[in-house]
Amino acid sequence: MDLTPRIERTLEQALRAAAGADCPPRLADALHYAVFPGGARIRPRLALAVAKACGDDDPAAADAAAAAIEFLHCASLVHDDLPCFDDADLRRGKPSAHRAFGEPLAVLAGDALIVLAFETIAAAPMRRPERIGALVGVVGRAVGAQGGITAGQAWECESAVDLAAYHLAKTGSLFAAATVAGAAAAGAAHEPWRALGETIGEAFQVADDISDHVGSEAQLGKPAGRDKALGRPSAVLELGLEAAVGRLKSLVARAAALVPPCPGEADFRALILHETRRFMPSGMKTVAA
Amino acid sequence: MDLTPRIERTLEQALRAAAGADCPPRLADALHYAVFPGGARIRPRLALAVAKACGDDDPAAADAAAAAIEFLHCASLVHDDLPCFDDADLRRGKPSAHRAFGEPLAVLAGDALIVLAFETIAAAPMRRPERIGALVGVVGRAVGAQGGITAGQAWECESAVDLAAYHLAKTGSLFAAATVAGAAAAGAAHEPWRALGETIGEAFQVADDISDHVGSEAQLGKPAGRDKALGRPSAVLELGLEAAVGRLKSLVARAAALVPPCPGEADFRALILHETRRFMPSGMKTVAA
After folding, report:
1. Residue contact B27–A154, C-beta within 8 A
2. How large is the angle between the packed helices B132-143 and B59-80, nearest 10 degrees?
3. Looking at domain A4-288, what is its CATH homologous superfamily?
4. Which DSSP letter does residue B276 get?
5. Any idea which UniProt keywords this protein has (chains A, B) (predicted)?
6. From CA B97, how far away is CA B102, in angstroms rounded?
7. Is B284 within 8 Å of chain A by CB?
């Protein structure tokens, strides 16, 4: 089943509530611009898939968790693109938020999306509102200073960096939130889902490094070759292309093996193998087969 | 009773948890710098005072709500000081966060403090965890795009501005969160506390405008006369000094009259009159007497 319509609907509803009459019009525009049209919505689709594999007994909780994770992802893109970080002109094939709206509204849109993520969880019409605390905690950890996305970005401001901690914080943490929050939304024991999310995140990061190396700007919707230009760590620059592809394959296999026991285990494992193929750069789709 | 030690302890504990081994050291330093030493902690003291007036039957909830509000206040100061907004060199008598740590870490510290606010609520050892949803909702509304602080700041990016909406969003919203969240933390009907918080916020804003006009940089810990220099709205520039002081007096009287019925009503009303005197610029302390 395609989960995308369910995700887009939740994002639209939450954003409409957050950007109504009391929201300055240009901020409302910037928020919409940062969220729509989206990318592949990989993280919220992963969250919903895990919730379904765990029985999905509270769909409003799963929807809210998935939307929160996507809002945080969009916030991180808007802030990462700012002149003081990547100074990126393009994102998803259009001008980055600060190029389109100016730097003040880009900072504020990112801030407001972080807030909206938590509001979305708190406002969801859940059957089991006692799950709100766990969901806020899991999602907060993924973006906070203690190993979350802000920590990942802040490692770029340090002279000495632990590469594994850097990638885990910058990319793995939000994938881990997707699997863990998906399970928590469905009332399952959720920490057993963390290693799976982190491994999918690592696979995604390697695939992203490969894309940056072999893709074109038209394919990526942003400039290619940025890792090398910005001196950023990259599996391709570190290992070479062939070994990076090998690493990607082994991460996908490891992810499939890490699926915890759950009602929908077999289907979910097949989905993981199918979905991780979406990570592949065009022309390399068979790599994970 | 002085509530400050209780507040400082909660802020320190929450920050220690958020800036531990998995937090890049310079980000940890920037977070600490943004929160300590604090200003008057007016908002969290207000939140705790309301919780006490309402019976304070879940002190951990009140502590967490108060700390969350202060973290969000600190985040807003760090981001407002950024070069793309006020470009402020000084804050609380020391270099602003981006002057001390650079712009990337200032953006990230603000982001991480927003996240930490919500994590603090979710992680509190509450007796009544079913209050988490209301607290996250109330606090989120105060800083979100729909009439919260980000909306307030974003009004500065519009060509036409409703001044009342601007002040309510930029200043009133977080004071309203303090009263409303204080009541919600204690399990009281919380929306009746909103008008009081908004009125205190309005009084604070007028007092701030007066301070900016009559204070010195040494008294303020930041440059004086910024409203005029930056063309920002100000009650003093709009009404003149004398009428602004009159407006402040009437707002304080209105606030005292807006205290909802609660077990500690008389004491709380006296506290409001005492505390609002702290807003007064040095040499004008008798104004609200």
Report:
1. yes
2. 20
3. Farnesyl Diphosphate Synthase (1.10.600.10)
4. H
5. Isoprene biosynthesis, Magnesium, Metal-binding, Transferase
6. 7
7. no
pLDDT tens for each residue of A13-45:
999 999 988 999 999 999 999 999 998 999 999
**Whole-number Å distance between alpha carbons of A287 and A209:** 15
Structure tokens at A123: 């406002």
CB atoms within 10 A of CB A55: 14
| CA–CA gap between residue A120 and residue A19 (Å, rounded) | 13
CB-side exposure of A57: number of CA atoms within 13 Å?
11
Q: State the Cα–Cα distance between residues B137 and B104, nearest whole angstrom.
A: 29
Whether A25 and chain B come into contact, CB under 8 Å, resolves to yes
Cβ(A212)–Cβ(A81) below 8 Å: no
CB atoms within 10 A of CB B261: 8
CB proximity A136 to B under 8 Å = yes
Domain B4-279: homologous superfamily in CATH: Farnesyl Diphosphate Synthase (1.10.600.10)
Closest partner residue to A107 among B84, B121, B158, by Cβ?
B84
What is the tens place of the pLDDT at every residue in A208-229? 889 888 877 777 777 777 777 7
ipTM: 0.94
Q: Which of A114, A115, A158 shows the shortest C-beta gap to B24? A: A158
Closest Cβ–Cβ partner in B75, B103, B146 for A19: B146
pLDDT tens string B63-85:
999 999 999 999 999 999 999 99
- Give one DSSP letter per residue of A135-160, joined into a string: HHHHHHHHHSTTTSHHHHHHHTTSSS
Question: Could you tell me what percent of chain B has a pLDDT over 90?
Answer: 75
- Using DSSP, state whether B90 is helix, strand or coil: strand
Contact (CB<8Å) B102/A157: yes
Chain B nearest-CA distance from A115, in A, is 6
Contacts of B162 (CB under 8 A, 6+ apart): B155
